[in-house]
Structures are given as C-alpha cells and as structure tokens.
Design a protein that fits this description.
Strand content: 15-25%
CATH class of the largest domain: Alpha Beta
Largest sheet: 8 strands, mixed
CATH architecture of the largest domain: 3-Layer(aba) Sandwich
Distance between the termini: 49 Å
Number of helices: 11
Structural class: alpha/beta
Strand order of the largest sheet: 3-2-1-4-5-8-6-7
Number of domains: 2
Length: about 260
C-alpha cells in the first residue's frame, strides 16, 4: 500500500522544501522558532509543511478532516524525521476540536487552506482561541481572481491550461466544465472552490472584523510554490500593482500574511 503513496510522498517533500526555504525565514522575522515553540497547522494534509517544525524540535499538532491524509502524514513524518515523539496529527474537522483538547499555540499555520474554508469570517473568529496572546498566524493563499485561482489546473481536459475562466458566472462555468466532460465529482469540487475562494480585500476584512492585527502582507507575482513545481524563483509583486485594489488579485499568484491577536 505504501508504494501507492509515492506521488503524495513527493508532494510531502515539496511542501517541506517550500516551508523550510521560504516560510520559516518569513516567520522568523516575527516569532522565534525553537524547541519551546508550539505549532498548529489547520488543514495539514499529509503534514509536509510540519516536517520543518518537527525537525526544529517544536511541539507540533496538525488537524485535517481527511483520515487518509492523516495516515499518510504520520507515515511520512516517521519516515523522514527522527523526532517522532514531538508531533500529533488529528483526524477531525477543526470545528470539532477545542482549546481544551489541544491548548494554545505560538504559531498557527494555514497554507493553501483558507481559500477552501467556508465562511472565512466566522472561522477567523473561531481561530482566536488557539492563539496565545503573543502568538502569530501565517496564511499563504492564492487570491481567487488570479489566473488559476479556481484550481482548474486539476482538470482532465484542455481546461487545465485555461486561465481566468473560473471567474465566469457559476452557471456558465459549470456548463463549460460539463461541455469538456469533466467528471461530476470534480465539477462539484471546483464549484466548492468557487464558493469559498477569497480575495485579498475579503481576507483583510475578515482579519479586521475579528480583532486581528496584520503584522505583514507580502504579495507575490511568482508564488514560492513555483520553485519546486516549475523551477521559478519567487518574485514579490510590483509595489504599484500591489497598491491597486481588485486589479492586484488578477496578477498576484500568492499572498503571504502574518497576523496576531490585537492587543
């Protein structure tokens, strides 16, 4: 069975590389990282992002509602780290986990996750209970209106190469997907993405309305993920384009944020 996980193991290692190379140095500007740090990742998947924190000796908790991904994460972490006693992966909807179950954290991670969570404003309020008063939360996500913000690159047809068509009205978008014989299950996944996709402006509003403070916002023209995927080095968005409301969503492939509870 483990042989069938080879593709996901490669993805696990890609996730680790990006986190270790780009996210750890970014986080370190705002929060020290050592064996005393408690780290939570929401929607941790196979836990590739968490490998970097496990290696540092941090106390690590990952939560994901997908049982199979949690099983893979436990296997991969035990295989690729020597500190298997300092992590815990939980198969659960985060809304079914309370602070009494896992405590509070110095660092919370959501990488490529917030754009899949319904009602982000409610979630941002719920998340506060897990942060220590001086804790920080890292978010990395593709703005919905970026060329492939709908995750249509996962399509089987030529549509996987078509940018921006995900922003069409839902009825037209669905009709195009059916026309190109995408499966019903994949169409539903893409429609769910359309329902939860988040813009830079909406993210900012959700942060502000739930008494979080933005410590940093970094918008990327070239997503740090593209280093391992396409061999492209990250490039920050041009300041002029980053300052133009709405338009910046169309040309920004990734947004990084560090937020903290407002004092």
């Amino acid at each position: 069975m483990k042989d069938k996980w080879a593709a996901r193991e490669y993805y696990f290692l890609q996730q680790h590389y990006t986190t270790e190379t780009y996210i750890l140095p970014y986080l370190a500007k705002f929060k020290s990282l050592d064996s005393t740090s408690r780290v939570l990742e929401v929607a941790c998947g196979e836990a590739g992002n968490l490998k970097a924190f496990v290696n540092l000796g941090c106390e690590v908790v990952g939560v994901d509602f997908n049982d199979e991904k949690i099983a893979k994460g436990e296997y991969f972490l035990k295989k690729h780290t020597t500190k298997a006693d300092n992590f815990k992966l939980i198969s659960s909807d985060i809304y079914h986990v309370g602070v009494e179950d896992i405590g509070q954290f110095d660092i919370i991670i959501l990488r490529d996750a917030i754009e899949h969570i319904p009602n982000q404003e409610k979630f941002m309020g719920f998340l506060r209970q897990f942060s220590k008063p001086d804790g920080v939360v890292f978010f990395g996500f593709p703005p919905w209106y970026m060329p492939f913000g709908g995750h249509q690159q996962g399509c089987r047809s030529i549509l996987k190469k078509v940018p921006y068509f995900h922003i069409l009205p839902t009825a037209i978008y669905k009709a195009i997907l059916k026309l190109f014989n995408e499966t019903e299950s994949h169409i539903q996944t893409l429609l769910n993405n359309k329902e939860t996709g988040i813009s830079i402006e909406r993210f900012r509003r959700a942060v502000k309305s739930n008494q979080w403070e933005v410590l940093d916002e970094t918008l990327y023209l070239i997503n740090p993920n593209y280093d391992t995927k396409f061999g492209l080095k990250p490039r920050k968005q041009f300041a002029l384009l980053a300052a133009i409301p709405f338009f910046r969503n169309l040309v920004t492939t990734c947004a990084y944020y560090i937020i903290s509870p407002k004092k």
